[in-house]
Amino acid sequence: MTTEMQEIEQLRAMRAKAMAAGGPERIEAQHAKGKLTARERLAALLDAGTFQEIGALATHNVTDFDMADKKYPGDGVVAGFGKIHGRKVAVYAQDFTVLGGSFSEVQSSKICRVMDVAVESGIPIIGLIDSGGARIQEGVRSLAAYGQLFTRNVMASGVVPQISVILGPSAGGAVYSPALTDFVIMVRRISYMFITGPDVIKTVTGEEVSFRDLGGALVHNAKSGVAHLMADSEHQAFQQVKQLLSYLPPNNAEDPRRVEPYDDPMRMDEALNTIVPLDDTQPYDMHEVIERIVDRDSFFEIQPYYARNAITGFARLDGYPVGIVANQPNYLAGVLDIDSSDKIARFVRICDAFNIPLVTLVDCPGYLPGVEQEHHGIIRHGAKVIYAYCEATVPKISVVLRKAIGGAYIAMSSKQLRSDLAFAWPTAEIAVMGPEGAVNILYRRELAEAADPEALRRQIVEEYRRKFHNPYVAADTGQIDEVLEPRETRPRLIAALDILRGKVTTLPARKHGLMPV
Q1: What is the Cα–Cα distance from 241 to 129, expressed in whole angstroms?
Q2: pLDDT over 60 at 257, yes or no
Q3: What is the pLDDT of residues 382-428, one digit of tens each?
Q4: Domain ranges of the chain
Q5: What is the CATH number of domain 270-432+470-500?
Q6: Is 144 tagged catalytic?
Q7: Catalytic: 437?
């Protein structure tokens, strides 16, 4: 055999070893946990035959701690480039079958290289996370490697979409890379994220908690807000990645891509005319309103389990992606509180970063009152919504369906926050405060002196509601551009967005603003 052939055979052997990952036993153990291997995951996520791997033969150079004989080509991460529905993406998948997927200098180098190319090429970055954390045997070098990764996450933020799919453990410092990305997807029963594990917590605080209750998929989707989507299986998670990418542009210099329109842009839904109850204390489901306005079956909700008094998600209007922000009267009457403020502000900034127009559907009685909310910083968190809407330069349209009271009217994409168009339905109630509160303040003396204060209060409240709790006063002063018949909302939004698509807005020259955080 010639020297050249020997070298080729050696290369083939090394590639075969890389493909074998941690070996049959560890692959079997991975499957026994209901988990796919790194390469199986990439095969399920990417278009067939499109994956181009880099760093497949890289290995660590640690010789102590019995690591000299524990070298695996690729060193526990498979990284490279591929396509999803024909769109180019950068991907990396941590391989738990190789040294528990522990994070090393080599892993960092490979992932950072992929991310650098992705930013330079303007393509999304997708990370499939399944790692036991920093490789202890590498000491501070593995910590420095995380620092390199975190820097790349920050530098790529707002430039290209970053999506993290948690497909196993993500513990300790490792959690900060997903937290720095735009979207986090977790899978029930196999995904975990936490800074300190159950054993450490028990030692330090005496609390006993399971992995799932501490940092499982439901915890981070419903309680902490760390995650944005939850899947029942890995394959469903990959479908969510694909769906998410369909609404996003490849980078911040491009517009999101339109799909071939399939729903009549002039469609009017008569049910919208009666969907808001006449009794303003009666709830209704804002999801029904959204579904009747946007292109059929196009609404893709983000963080559906977190801060359910607010709704955020992507949809399409005449084939064009839009971001939807709405209050949810069915939950806490749609009030703004700390969690919903954070949820809305972050989503608005994501849409603005990636040139996605915003449609805001308003039915909000105000900010949630209470000692706990005040002590935990509702002022600071509520200000994030105002900051995000003011800063956003994408087309912004608001529609007041019912209540827009006090600070909630201002915060929810009012004209004063540089929104382009403000519409309202005839059922809209736009005022400084609710009629009962206003009457108690304005007519305190008259009520105190009245023979029948309750009867007088009811009379004044009804008069106040008739005069001020309607959209026509706001329209008369120019705060509302048009009062719409509810059924015509869809065609009016489509027509308005068509005009605003060429909008150009600049911000003052500055290094960056100081958003309340």
Answers
A1: 14
A2: yes
A3: 999 999 999 999 999 999 999 999 898 999 999 999 999 999 999 99
A4: 3-247, 270-432+470-500, 435-468
A5: 3.90.226.10
A6: no
A7: no
- In 272-425, which ranges are continuous DSSP H helix? 286-293, 338-353, 371-375, 378-391, 407-411
Q: Is 127 a catalytic residue?
A: no
Architecture in CATH of 3-247: Alpha-Beta Complex (3.90)
**pLDDT tens per residue, range 220-241:** 999 999 999 999 999 999 999 9
pLDDT at 435 over 70: yes
SS3 content of the chain, % helix, strand, coil (to 5): 45, 20, 40
Q: Are 283 and 272 in contact (CB under 8 A)?
A: no
pLDDT in tens, 78-107: 999 999 999 999 999 999 998 888 888 889
Determine which one of 29, 407, 437, 495 is catalytic: 407
Cα 105 to Cα 143: distance, rounded to the nearest angstrom: 9
Pairing of the two strands 429-431 and 396-405: parallel
Cβ atoms of 474 and 423 closer than 8 Å: no
Tell me how far apart the alpha carbons of residues 420 and 396 are, in angstroms, rounded to a whole number: 5
Question: 217: which 2 tokens?
Answer: 């998929």
In the set 132, 168, 172, 382, the catalytic residue is: 172
For residue 59, what are the contacts with CB-CB under 8 A and spacing of at least 6? 71, 72, 73, 74, 75, 106
Check if 407 is active-site. Answer: yes
